[in-house]
Every structure is written in C-alpha cells, then in structure tokens.
Design goal:
Chain lengths: 227, 94
C-alpha cells in the first residue's frame, strides 16, 4: 500500500493489489485513529492526506532493495517532527539502539558516530531499563522487536505509558514486515518503522526526520508493502 | 577500507560460522532457536549486502513459523530444501 500524501482512497485501494477493499479501509481507519494519517475531509470520503511520511530514494535502483521489494519484505516510514530542531554548539544527539544482533549494533553505532551522534546500546530488558534511566534522556530510540527476553512492541507500549520517556520518538527496526506487525507498531505509538534488512542511510534519514534535524527529506510520503 | 566496509567484510568472514550454528540447530531439531537464528540472519544478511541470502533465510523462517514446533517428515524434507538454498546463497556470497 503506498501512501504518498496525495492519493485518494480510491487510488490507494487500486494499488493495494489483492487486498480486499474492506481490509484497506480498516487499515486506513486504524492509521487515522492512531494519528499517523490526517483526513482531508473524512476517512469515508475519497480524500486522505497521508502527510508526515517519507520514503528515501537513495536505494531505489539498488538490486538489494529491488530483490527485497519484489519479495514483499520492505517497509519504511517515519513521522516528521512537528518543529525543526537546531542543535546548539557542541550539542550531540543521543540515539538509543535496542538490538541484540552484535553486528548490526556495530554497524549502527559506527555509522551514527561517523555522523557525530552519540549511541547508547541495549540488547535485553535489563539494559533497556538502564539505558532509559541514564541521563541524558535519549533523543530517539531505535527498537528491535525480537529481543531475547522481551518483545519490542511491549517495550514500545511501556515507553509510551511512562511520563519521563513517553515523548521520545521510537523507530521500530525489525525484520517483522507483515501488515499486522506494522499496524501493531503504529497502534502502540511507533514514530517510524523500518524493516530489516535496511540501508543504514535510511535509518539515519528516519532519525533526522523524526527529530526535525537538517538533512531530513523535504518530500513526505511512505510505503507500506504488506507481505 | 572504511569502517563500514570493514564491518561488511567481517560479516562475510563470520558467515560460515553462523551457518554452521544454524546447521547444528537443525540437526538437533531445536526449532525455536533455529527460527530465531534464521530471523536474525534474514535481518542482517541483506543489510550487509547479501540480499539473496536474506530472502532465502526469510523463506526458511516463514516456513518454520507455518510448520510449528514439531515438523513431520514431509515438512522436514521441505525445510531441508530451503536450508540447502541458504547454503548455496552463502557459497555464492562475494
């Protein structure tokens, strides 16, 4: 399903392929209820403004992305920050990376450090709790779902219920690419959703987008491709 | 070689060990751990530039998910084919 900020419900339905129109409507209504899309008039009408979404174009031509796209394993979007953010001199963004695959952690940490950002790491429940309590509060959380002793969606729900951290943007970074998984993330308050495998540049773009940092894409659209 | 290329090279070097671990889990029919290992491989392989391996691992992961924790003989044969496909993809990895 492609939400590009301009399409009507009829166009979204037409592009949904074999998905029944009822399922598409239900998905749109859930996105609407969770605040991830805005109705230009009404969800029952033919105009929905998908707003606040992006899709990086950097990987469009790459074979890897094409292969994954063809197999239906490709989702990425991020909700743009309401306000742009300008960093003070010397201020650094802290990215809390919740991921238990050591090599992916190394990749994300190395890349974000090269971009001048701090990283804080957690691979299990105890480390997540410690990382969230640590000062300064992280600016953004990259959250895997399949962790050894806790479900990332449950972590997301708990973050959203906790006064001290509930406003931190959370980008799900997971191999779970089904429609149900994406909707579950949205319903629980995910600010973005990127499926593995990913292009590391896409993760950086998502972080910049949800934080309103310079370098976030100006174009607002997203792609949700169910399996 | 920049740091990201080094990480990618390291991933490829460690790939045979990952596959050996997966093979051992399959031999022991430790399905939940096998499922988790395939899930991790599917997520990481494409990120490090091995999309075919990623897709093959995802297919095997999905297959296991559909079969449930105890595979009958037909399902085991089906999984073996998928696992052989994973091995072929990794042999072809540059």
């Amino acid at each position: 399903m492609l939400l590009d900020g301009k399409s009507t419900v009829a166009q979204i339905r037409a592009r949904a392929g074999s998905l029944p129109a009822k399922a598409v409507d239900e998905a749109l209504e859930r996105l609407l209820r969770s605040g991830h899309i805005l109705p230009a008039v009404d969800v029952a009408s033919d105009h929905i403004d998908a707003g606040n979404f992006f899709s990086a174009s950097t990987s469009e031509s790459e074979a890897a992305a094409a292969t994954l796209r063809a197999n239906g394993y490709f989702v990425r979007f991020a909700q743009r920050a309401a306000q742009p953010r300008k960093l003070a001199a010397g201020e650094k963004i802290t990215v809390f990376v919740v991921e238990d695959d050591a090599q992916l952690v190394k990749l994300v940490r190395t890349y974000f450090q090269m971009e001048g950002m701090e990283t804080r790491l957690a691979g299990n429940r105890e480390e997540i709790n410690a990382g969230l309590r640590q000062a300064p509060k992280p600016d953004v959380i990259l959250l895997d779902v399949m962790l050894p002793d806790v479900d990332g969606f449950d972590v997301l729900a708990r973050v959203r219920q906790h006064d001290a951290v509930k406003d931190i943007p959370v980008i799900m970074m997971t191999a779970r690419a089904t429609r149900e998984a994406v909707l579950k993330g949205l319903e629980r308050g995910a600010t973005g959703y990127i499926t593995k495998p990913f292009h590391i540049e896409t993760v950086l773009t998502a972080v910049k987008t949800v934080l309103g940092l310079p370098g976030a894409p100006a174009r607002a659209d997203s792609e949700i491709k169910p399996k | 070689m920049n740091p990201l290329e080094e990480l990618s090279a390291e991933y490829r070097r460690e790939l045979p060990a990952k596959l050996e671990k997966i093979a051992a889990l399959w031999s022991a029919r430790r399905v939940p751990e096998l499922h988790r290992a395939l899930h991790t491989l599917a997520g990481s392989a494409g990120t490090f530039g091995l999309p075919e391996l990623s897709v093959a691992a995802r297919e095997a992961e999905n297959y296991l998910e559909a079969c449930g924790p105890a595979l009958d003989a037909r399902q085991q044969a089906g999984f073996q084919q998928l696992f052989d496909g994973i091995c072929r993809c990794s042999i072809g990895a540059p």
